[in-house]
């Protein structure tokens, strides 16, 4: 059987950094994100008896090494869950391939889990599916939930995500500026554990996670934007002070931050957010989206997109093969 799923990547608002259990991808603390409606991953999965092993193609290239291993962890777990012994052909394509830190690992594994479980004809319950996609990327749980979502590090002995509000409930607009990088997210997750600031970050996140959740439920965009901006600085401070002194920002990252700060001084409601990479999300009210986007274009950033909040993954009849 063949199935295709489409999922949206995420912007981390209260971001998770570091893994308490690297094998199961269980984070140290809860985290919150929002799905980016303008971006998506499309993944087609087919069960087949003609292959001697799984075939995985990501963005036009055959997956090997770590990329293949992460996919295999999910597929092998699904085989054990469903008692299926066949192989899979997987073709996955992101809507854009430039930029690092745009949350595509989240949408990639959310789409994979949705399509693969459908392809094997399995009625996997939501929490089990959330825990399945988490094995590929912790943030995939929040892409699977859709909209604004919280990932629980430990809720009654399970680590999974659930949606906080419907996509249309919060009038949040996002400007996305992709910036390329060769850094792998896994390297940063491992590196941050050596930072002397990491324990302080855990205490910080424990204090603000409920504030962010309440801001989302009440549609308080100013608080959402401010907290996401502050959390970005906190996260990158922890990364920079690890033993390898990893600096994930590029010069363009700083230029965008400076431009956002100029807009803030002019009274424009706008805030930056930077996940594990150099790319930048600029958050604002949807009514200000074009104003903010035009301002960034005038500053020399032509490769930008605007977006509203995206929903949860859905199945499509338009297969990639």
Describe this entry's structure for a reader:
The protein is an alpha+beta fold. It has two domains: 2-168, Ribosomal Protein S5, domain 2; 171-307, 2-Layer Sandwich (Alpha-Beta Plaits), CATH 3.30.70.890. The chain is 38% helix and 23% strand. The protein is built from nine helices and 16 strands. The protein has helices spanning 65-82, 104-119, 126-134, 140-145, 185-191, 198-218, 221-240, 251-265, 289-298, and strands spanning 2-7, 10-14, 19-21, 26-27, 31-35, 41-48, 55-58, 61-62, 87-94, 148-151, 161-165, 172-177, 270-273, 280-285, 305-307, 314-316. The protein has a six-stranded mixed beta sheet with strand order 8-7-9-6-1-16. Helix 1 runs parallel beside helix 2 (104-119). The chain is globular and about 60 Å long. The model has no long low-confidence stretch (mean pLDDT 96).
Terminal CA distance: 13 Å
- Estimate the helix proportion, in percent: 25-40%
Q: Which stretches are poorly predicted, pLDDT < 50 over at least 5 residues?
A: none
Tertiary shape:
globular
* Total number of distinct structural domains: 2
Radius of gyration: 19 Å
Number of helices: 9
Assign the CATH class of the largest domain: Alpha Beta
Number of DSSP strands?
Answer: 16
């Amino acid at each position: 059987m063949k199935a295709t799923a489409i999922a949206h990547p995420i912007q981390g608002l209260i971001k998770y950094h570091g893994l308490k259990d690297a094998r199961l991808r269980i984070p140290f603390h809860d985290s919150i994100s929002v799905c980016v409606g303008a971006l998506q991953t499309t993944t087609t999965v087919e069960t087949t008896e003609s292959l001697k092993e799984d075939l995985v193609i990501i963005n036009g290239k055959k997956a090997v090494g770590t990329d293949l291993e992460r996919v295999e962890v999910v597929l092998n777990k699904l085989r054990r869950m469903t008692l299926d012994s066949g192989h899979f052909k997987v073709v996955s394509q992101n809507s854009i391939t430039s930029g690092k830190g745009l949350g595509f690992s989240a949408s990639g594994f959310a789409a994979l889990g949705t399509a693969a479980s459908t392809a094997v004809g399995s009625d996997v319950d939501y929490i089990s599916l959330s825990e399945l996609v988490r094995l590929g990327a912790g943030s995939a749980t929040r892409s699977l939930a859709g909209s604004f979502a919280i990932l629980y590090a430990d809720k009654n002995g399970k680590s999974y995500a659930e949606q906080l509000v419907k996509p249309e409930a919060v009038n949040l607009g996002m400007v996305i500026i992709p910036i390329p990088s060769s850094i792998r997210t896994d390297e940063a997750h491992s590196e941050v554990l050596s930072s002397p600031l990491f324990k302080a970050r855990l205490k910080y996140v424990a204090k603000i996670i409920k504030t962010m959740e309440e801001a989302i439920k009440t549609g308080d965009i100013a608080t959402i934007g401010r907290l996401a901006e502050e959390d970005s600085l906190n996260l990158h401070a922890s990364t920079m002070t690890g033993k390898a002194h990893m600096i994930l920002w590029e010069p363009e990252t700083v230029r965008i931050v400076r431009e956002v700060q100029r807009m803030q001084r002019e009274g424009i409601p706008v805030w930056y957010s930077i996940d594990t990479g150099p790319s930048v999300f600029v958050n604002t009210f949807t009514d200000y989206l074009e104003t903010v986007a035009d301002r960034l274009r005038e500053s020399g950033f032509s490769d930008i997109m605007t977006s509203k909040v995206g929903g949860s993954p859905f199945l499509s009849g338009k297969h990639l093969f």
